[in-house]
Structures are given as structure tokens and as C-alpha cells.
Amino acid sequence: MTVEPGGATTAAPAFPAKEPPQADQLVQLLTPEGERVEHPGYPLDLSAADIRDMYRDLVLVRRIDTEAISLQRQGELGIWASLLGQEAAQIGSGRALGPDDMVFPTYREHGVAWCRGIDPVKLLELYRGVSHGGWDPKEHKFHLYTIVIGSQTLHATGYAMGIQRDGAVGGDGAGQDRAEAVIAYFGDGATSQGDVNEAFVWASVFNAPVVFFCQNNQWAISEPLEKQSRIPLYQRARGFGFPGLRVDGNDVLACYAVTRKALQAAREGQGPTLIEAFTYRMGAHTTTDDPTRYRLASELEVWKLKDPIERVRAYLVRTGQAEPEFFAAVDAEAKQVGARVREACRTMADPPPLSMFDNVYAEPTAILREEREQYAAYLESFEESAGAGR
Amino acid sequence: MTTLTLSKALNAGLRKALENDPKVLIMGEDVGKLGGVFRVTDGLQKDFGEDRVIDTPLAESGIVGTAIGLALRGYRPVCEIQFDGFVYPAANQIVSQLAKMRYRSRGHVALPVTIRIPCGGGIGAVEHHSESPEVLFAHTAGLQVVACADAADAFAMIQQSVSCDDPVIFFEPKRRYWDKAEVDTTSGLASALPLDRARVALEGTEVTLLAYGPMVRTCLESALAARQGGPGNGHSIEVVDLRSLSPLDMETISASVRRTGRCVVAHEAPVYAGLGAEIAARVTEQCFYHLEAPVLRVGGFATPYPPSRIEEHYLPDLDRILDAVDRSFGY
Fold it and tell me: Could you give the residue range(s) of every CATH 3.40.50.920 domain in chain B?
């Protein structure tokens, strides 16, 4: 543990926060070189098969992401928000979730979506402009992507308050089998938003079963972390009255372990935890962005050495837990998934124009019905003209 | 029948909603022990507990944002925003999140959240306590926007709002909180006028006066004065209480204007780009050949809400409303 609530005041934090944190601050279970290290707070009980599954997830979501970037370049997507570099933070935390836990994502949580069983093609719908969100949040326990930064942290907290009212949180009598928790994803930039701070207040005051999972990827579009905070982000939790910790966001094992523990604490009625997953946005903010205008390539080179996938591969190879055939099979599957996503995107139909009038309210209002009818008649007038050969 | 103030009628309606559905929650600043600054939620926390009548931290975005989360979990939260001018910190949560969730999710998600907002001026309050922001929400697709005008309507309308599967912005005319009326608290909602319908509050034949919320009483007094003589002497004014500001009940509005041939809209909110503008445009389209005069509007000026010592000049009163009626007859 890096922060003990109610513990002694620590010395002033190192600044700037962007500097790599000290080893004792950072929970790490797998070094960038692929070496397993133990952490007393986070014993790991994953089998070789589990870690191979994680590796597969990491590779596949990276493949989906690079495919989506290409599709945007080819004009098939309007925009794409890449997760490159953040695969471990998302797969590690995503795989730590129980089936009943609820997720509130930003628009970059493609890896978590993958863990929740959402077809990546559904993610593309949003970025192609075919829908505002193509999945049923209840079915996948994965809310719609939220675009306005930080807004979803309040939804997550409210949902967690609902869990409390349903008696589905431990502590006073609830069975552990019924216990549920919530995870809210957000980035370093979001920590400046009022909503995120309000969510911290609410979660703390009501002791809500919610895990705040902040992927600190160092950049909010062009603004580096020091534009958002003078202290390491995880330390903010202390001021709100709950524990915060920093994890190596490029270490899938550590992200899994800290998230699992925080979720379990939430389910047991111990309230919220802030996890700062220290990672790096390897790509642009979105496909419309040009990071060469504001950051040095050398920074990227440093982070390339901490790649979230390479270290797992190195570990599996070194410990003999995966054969070359395994890696070849994963690569082949990635190719297949990429091809499927590509094809599905290119053949994705536009929604019918009149569908824009659907689902504004439970029942359409008179004004909506009137506008729909008038616009339908307007569209039909062109079809008639075309039919008349004009 | 019981004689209740509008505030007590809302309290009785909320109590019924809490009794009828265990998923109904009340949340807001000071709504618990204090019973709300206007006592609308008086006694509810005592009877329904702190888990259902929730004193929240002091942050409006947090109130609405967590209400959305609770609704996603299956609850029906009723949020209180303490005063009209305090709703803006929650604008993103209301406009971008709450209003659009059903649409964004293609109908997978419904958010049955009611947001109660005491609105309007006339109580001598300090700034930001007297505003009429209804049109900001009426302009947001996905929200129902309603305003109650008297105790009897308030009792039913608040229950209808709570049971509505879409988000409802519920405006309460704060200077009418203490107005009394006969309320049948034993009547169910089956016999109540639907939430999206307007109501002819007073029948008349020569001019239709449209109002909602606090202006309904002012308009009724104007109509009675016009009948009894004085300014606008001899005119028979029909007063329509709009009740629903979005959607608008154009059927009731147009039917009235076609009968009378004249239309005046009154609201406290600024006339400029106000609800009256939308109504005037629609009435003109739908009743063009029945109109004896253009639709006229009377309301607040294109200024911020003024200091309270001169608010009587800002708020439409009986004289300004009858002056508009007179102008309508001048065509």
C-alpha cells in the first residue's frame, strides 16, 4: 500500500509529478523486462493459462485499435480515440471485474469493453457516426461511452449508492455472493473536472462501493500532467478521505491485482479507492490530433521500453509458460479479428434518416410525430420526382 | 377535500410517491432534517429514512449526476435544486447526460428522474433566487418540462412526474407556495389530467391568455378584473394554464385561440427568445385565419433579474397584462 488513510503526513511530494515515481510508490508485479516481482500487499494467484489469456487480450485489443486507426485514415471512421499504450491498464482492471460489477467508461476504454464481451464493431459505430452507442449497458454491465470528461464518475457513484440501497454490499448482513461494486474510468485531465471531485466527495461521504480508476497517460490532448496537478494524482484521495495508490499502468498483472483488491474492498463495504494507473498515451489523443506539436519524440522512446505487451511476452517465454505456437496462434487470431472488424466497418449501413426521431422520449410527442411525418413526406417527394423521370 | 398550501400539496404528493414505490428517492440540499428551505419535503426523512430522503453534499452537478446513476440502477430519484439560479452547475448533467441517455442508448436506458426547481421572483430575494430558466430546458430534447400553478394541480403533477419514465424538470412557483386550495388527497392519478396537457383555467370568449406557473394566478386576477370593469373593461378573457412547457399542448392552445381570435402569452421569463416566441410562431401557423391580432407577449425584460426593490417593475402584473390585452384589441 502506498497511502494509509489516517497515516502520518508524508513529506512534500516530488514535483514534477511526471517524473517516474519511486519504486516504493508504485505497485509493480512485472518489470518492463518481464521479471516477476513480489509485492506483499498483492499476492497473485494467476495460473499460466490466465496470464496467457491476458496476453491474448492485450494483443487483440491492440490489433483492433490499430485497425481502427487505419479505418479512420481510409475515411471509414470519422475519428478514433486510440488506447495504444494503455492496454495493460484496461485489460488488467477489466479482467479483475466480477460479472455483476458495473463499469462506467470514457470513450477510450476499448480494452475494458473487450473484457465485458462487447463486440468491437459496436465501438466503431460511435466513431463512424452510425449511432451514439450501440450496446445495451445492462446486458454487458458496461455503460455507454461518456464524452463529456468526468461526467460518468458521478453516474458510477450514484449507481454504487443504488447497490448500497439494494443491500448488495458487504458489511451489514449482505451475503458475499450478492455483493457488487462499480468502477469508474477517467483520465488525468478529468481529475481537474468538478464532476470528478464531486464524485470523490459523494463516494467518500456515502462510503459508496466504487473504484475510481484513473489512467494517467500523462497527456490531456496537448496538456501535460503538470497543468492538472502539483501532486501525484493518487495522493488526492487522502484529502477526500479514502485510500489512493499508484500502480504501474503498463503492468497487466499489477493492474489486475490492485483493481481486484479495491473492488473487493468496495464489495465488503470499505468504500471507494482511487487507483492511479501510471501509463502513457503512445498515440495521438485522437486521430485528429498531432502530438508532434507539443511533445518530444524522446519521451515516446522511453515509454516504448515499458511496453505493456512485450513484458508479458518476455515473462511467458523466459518462464517457459508459452511455446512459440501459442504466440503464432495469437498473432493469427489478431489478424482474423482485424479482418473481421475491417470488413464489418466497411459494410456497416447508415441508419435510416427517420430513425433520428426514435427514442427521444418513451412515447413520441405530438411535435416529434408532426416533424417526422413532415420530413418523411419531404423525402418522399424526391422519390416521386425520381419516379417521374425528372 | 383538504385545504392545503401549494407547498403542503407537493409534500403530500411526494409522500404518496414514496409510499407507492419503494424505488422513489428524494435527494437534495437540506431536504432531510430541515425539510427543504421551503419545507416541501418536511417530515419525509423522519418517516422514510435517510436512505430514501437523502441530504446531499452541496453540489448541484453531484445531485443530478448521482441521481442518474441511481436511476440506472432502477431507482426513481426526485432531486431538489434549492433555487432556480443554482441549477446551472448541473447543466451538463441535465442537458448532456440526463436528457440524452434514452436517445444515445437507442431506448435501452430510461432515466425516470424528476428535478424540482422553485422558480420565479416576487419574494424580495437576493440575486439568483428569482429566475425563470424554463426555456433553457424546454429547448433540450429528451426533457419534459412542466410547471404547476396551484395546490390541487401540484399534488397530482408531482406524482405524475415521479412515475414518468422520462426525465421531468418540475418548476414550482415559489411565490405561490403559500397559496391555498382545496386538494383531494384521496384521489388517484387515473382521474387526473395527463401531465402533458394544458388546462382551461377560466373560460372566456374574446381573447386567450396563456400562462404557466406563477403567472396563472396573475392572469386569472386580470381576467376577473377585466370582467368587473376597470382596464380592459368588458372583455371576456379565457385563461389557459399551459402546465406542460415541453411538450406544448398545441391542441388545447389552438382550440382556444380559434374560439377567441386573440392570444396573449404571459411569463416571468424574458420575452426575448422566451416560450412565448415559440407559442406565437405556432399559433400563427395553426390559427392564422382565425387571428384578429398578432400574438402578443408580456413578460420579463431583456435584462438580468433586477434588484428586488424594483422587481415589481420587471414582473408582469395585472396592469401590464391587461395593457397587452388592450393592445390586442387595438388591431
Answer: 199-329
Strands A273-278 and A244-248: parallel
pTM: predicted TM-score of the whole model, two decimal places = 0.95
Q: Per-residue DSSP letters for A100-152?
A: T-EEE--TT-HHHHHHTT--HHHHHHHHHTS-S--S-HHHHTBPPP--STTHH
| CA A347 – CA A361 distance, rounded (Å) | 30
pLDDT tens per residue across span B135-167 = 999 999 999 999 999 999 999 999 999 999 999
As to burial, measured by CB atoms within 10 angstroms (0-12 exposed, 13-18 middle, 19+ buried), residue A372 is middle
The per-residue pLDDT for range B112-124, each reduced to its tens digit, is 999 999 999 999 9
| In CATH, B2-183 is 3.40.50.970 | yes
Question: H helices of chain A, where?
Answer: 48-73, 87-95, 110-115, 120-128, 137-140, 151-165, 194-206, 236-240, 252-267, 297-304, 310-318, 324-346, 366-387
Closest CA to B269 of B124, B119, B149: B119
Render pLDDT for B87-134 as a digit per residue (tens, 0 to 9): 999 999 999 999 999 999 999 999 999 999 999 999 999 999 999 999
CB contact under 8 A, A201 and B66: no
Report how far residue A92's alpha carbon sits from residue B227's, in angstroms, rounded to the nearest whole number.
76
Q: Does B127 touch chain A (CB under 8 A)?
A: no
CB contact under 8 A, B66 and A158: yes
Residue range(s) in chain B whose domain bears CATH number 3.40.50.970: 2-183
With residue B264 as reference, give the H or E element that holds it: strand B263-270
Write out chain B residues lying below 8 Å of A201, CB-based.
57, 59, 62
**Active-site choice (A128, A155, A260, A285):** A285
Q: Which of B208, B203, B205 is nearest to B295 (CA)?
A: B208
Out of A175-184, A231-240, B261-270, B272-281, which region has the weakest mean confidence (pLDDT)? A175-184
B129 is catalytic: yes
Buried b (16+ CB within 10 A) or exposed e, B101-130: bbbbbbebbbbbbbbbbbbbbbeebeeebb
d(CA A188, CA A217): 7
For domain B199-329, which architecture applies?
3-Layer(aba) Sandwich (3.40)
* A178 is a catalytic site residue: no
- CB–CB contact A194 B108 (8 Å): no
Assess whether A281 carries a catalytic annotation. yes
Let me know: does A61 contact A82? Beta carbons within 8 Å.
Answer: no
Q: Where are the beta strands (DSSP E) in B40-198?
A: 53-55, 76-80, 114-119, 144-147, 168-173, 180-183
- Exposure class string for A176-208: b at 16+ Cβ within 10 A, else e: eeebbbbbbbbbbbbbebebbbbbbbbbbebbb
CA distance to A278, B197, B250, per residue, from B241 (Å): 58, 9, 12
Q: Are strands A210-216 and A273-278 parallel, antiparallel or unpaired?
A: parallel
A143, A97 Cβ separation under 8 angstroms:
no
